[in-house]
Specification:
It is a single chain. Helices cover 34% and strands 28% of the residues. With 119 residues, it is α+β, with helices and mostly antiparallel strands. It is built from 2 helices and 4 strands; from the N terminus they run βαβββα. It has one domain: Double Stranded RNA Binding Domain (2-Layer Sandwich). The termini are far apart. Helix 1 runs parallel beside helix 2. It has a 4-stranded mixed beta sheet with strand order 1-2-3-4, with helices on one face.
Protein backbone atom coordinates (compact mmCIF):
# COMPACT_ATOMS: atom_id res chain seq x y z
CA UNK A 1 0.00 0.00 0.00
CA UNK A 2 1.27 3.52 -0.63
CA UNK A 3 2.47 5.81 2.11
CA UNK A 4 0.08 8.58 3.09
CA UNK A 5 2.11 11.76 3.70
CA UNK A 6 1.00 14.76 5.75
CA UNK A 7 3.35 17.78 5.85
CA UNK A 8 2.67 20.66 8.20
CA UNK A 9 4.77 23.86 8.36
CA UNK A 10 4.44 25.97 11.49
CA UNK A 11 5.76 29.52 11.59
CA UNK A 12 6.78 29.69 7.92
CA UNK A 13 5.67 28.74 4.43
CA UNK A 14 7.35 26.02 2.38
CA UNK A 15 8.11 27.02 -1.19
CA UNK A 16 7.52 24.57 -4.04
CA UNK A 17 11.16 23.54 -4.37
CA UNK A 18 11.52 22.71 -0.67
CA UNK A 19 8.26 20.77 -0.65
CA UNK A 20 9.33 18.80 -3.73
CA UNK A 21 12.67 17.90 -2.06
CA UNK A 22 10.91 16.80 1.11
CA UNK A 23 8.38 14.68 -0.80
CA UNK A 24 11.27 13.09 -2.74
CA UNK A 25 12.99 12.18 0.54
CA UNK A 26 9.78 10.71 1.90
CA UNK A 27 9.37 8.65 -1.28
CA UNK A 28 12.50 6.67 -0.33
CA UNK A 29 10.72 5.81 2.91
CA UNK A 30 7.63 4.83 0.90
CA UNK A 31 9.63 2.16 -0.97
CA UNK A 32 10.68 0.60 2.34
CA UNK A 33 7.09 0.55 3.61
CA UNK A 34 5.51 -0.91 0.46
CA UNK A 35 4.61 -4.20 2.18
CA UNK A 36 2.97 -2.54 5.21
CA UNK A 37 -0.78 -1.97 5.37
CA UNK A 38 -1.83 1.68 5.52
CA UNK A 39 1.42 3.40 6.60
CA UNK A 40 1.08 7.10 7.46
CA UNK A 41 3.92 9.65 7.74
CA UNK A 42 3.24 12.95 9.49
CA UNK A 43 6.02 15.53 9.22
CA UNK A 44 5.76 18.72 11.27
CA UNK A 45 8.30 21.41 10.41
CA UNK A 46 8.70 24.28 12.87
CA UNK A 47 10.76 27.43 12.30
CA UNK A 48 12.53 29.00 15.26
CA UNK A 49 13.96 32.31 14.05
CA UNK A 50 15.70 33.13 17.35
CA UNK A 51 17.89 30.04 16.98
CA UNK A 52 17.90 30.13 13.16
CA UNK A 53 16.76 26.52 13.15
CA UNK A 54 14.10 24.42 11.52
CA UNK A 55 12.90 21.49 13.59
CA UNK A 56 11.48 18.38 11.95
CA UNK A 57 9.25 16.03 13.90
CA UNK A 58 8.49 12.91 11.84
CA UNK A 59 6.06 10.24 13.01
CA UNK A 60 5.55 7.14 10.89
CA UNK A 61 2.66 4.85 11.83
CA UNK A 62 3.37 1.42 10.37
CA UNK A 63 -0.27 0.43 10.23
CA UNK A 64 -3.48 0.52 12.23
CA UNK A 65 -2.17 -1.87 14.88
CA UNK A 66 1.53 -1.37 14.21
CA UNK A 67 4.13 0.64 16.09
CA UNK A 68 5.03 4.28 15.53
CA UNK A 69 8.55 5.33 14.57
CA UNK A 70 9.50 8.84 15.71
CA UNK A 71 12.38 11.15 14.84
CA UNK A 72 13.12 14.72 15.91
CA UNK A 73 15.88 16.59 14.10
CA UNK A 74 17.00 20.21 13.70
CA UNK A 75 18.98 21.97 10.97
CA UNK A 76 19.46 25.38 9.38
CA UNK A 77 17.30 24.43 6.38
CA UNK A 78 13.86 22.82 6.45
CA UNK A 79 14.59 20.21 3.80
CA UNK A 80 17.86 19.25 5.52
CA UNK A 81 16.06 18.73 8.85
CA UNK A 82 13.45 16.62 7.05
CA UNK A 83 16.15 14.54 5.33
CA UNK A 84 17.87 13.84 8.67
CA UNK A 85 14.53 12.83 10.20
CA UNK A 86 13.76 10.46 7.30
CA UNK A 87 17.23 8.88 7.54
CA UNK A 88 16.78 8.35 11.30
CA UNK A 89 13.40 6.65 10.75
CA UNK A 90 14.92 4.46 8.00
CA UNK A 91 17.68 3.35 10.41
CA UNK A 92 15.09 2.63 13.10
CA UNK A 93 13.05 0.60 10.59
CA UNK A 94 16.16 -1.38 9.57
CA UNK A 95 16.90 -2.13 13.23
CA UNK A 96 13.33 -3.27 13.82
CA UNK A 97 13.37 -5.56 10.77
CA UNK A 98 16.79 -6.98 11.67
CA UNK A 99 15.57 -7.69 15.19
CA UNK A 100 12.48 -9.46 13.82
CA UNK A 101 14.71 -11.59 11.57
CA UNK A 102 16.91 -12.53 14.54
CA UNK A 103 20.02 -10.74 13.31
CA UNK A 104 22.70 -9.51 15.67
CA UNK A 105 21.95 -6.24 17.47
CA UNK A 106 23.04 -2.98 15.90
CA UNK A 107 25.94 -1.40 17.78
CA UNK A 108 25.81 -3.77 20.75
CA UNK A 109 28.91 -5.88 21.24
CA UNK A 110 28.55 -9.52 22.06
CA UNK A 111 27.92 -10.11 25.74
CA UNK A 112 29.47 -13.56 25.75
CA UNK A 113 32.51 -13.81 27.90
CA UNK A 114 35.62 -14.93 26.19
CA UNK A 115 37.12 -18.11 27.63
CA UNK A 116 40.64 -18.87 26.50
CA UNK A 117 41.05 -22.40 25.23
CA UNK A 118 42.69 -24.77 27.69
CA UNK A 119 45.39 -26.96 26.24
Amino acid sequence: MSLKVLITAQGFRLDDVQERHIRHQLSSLERRLAHRSEPVAHLVLTHQPQQRLYRANLRVHLGPDGPTLVSRQAAQEADHAARMAVEAVERELERRQANQQGAASFGVPSRREFEPSKR
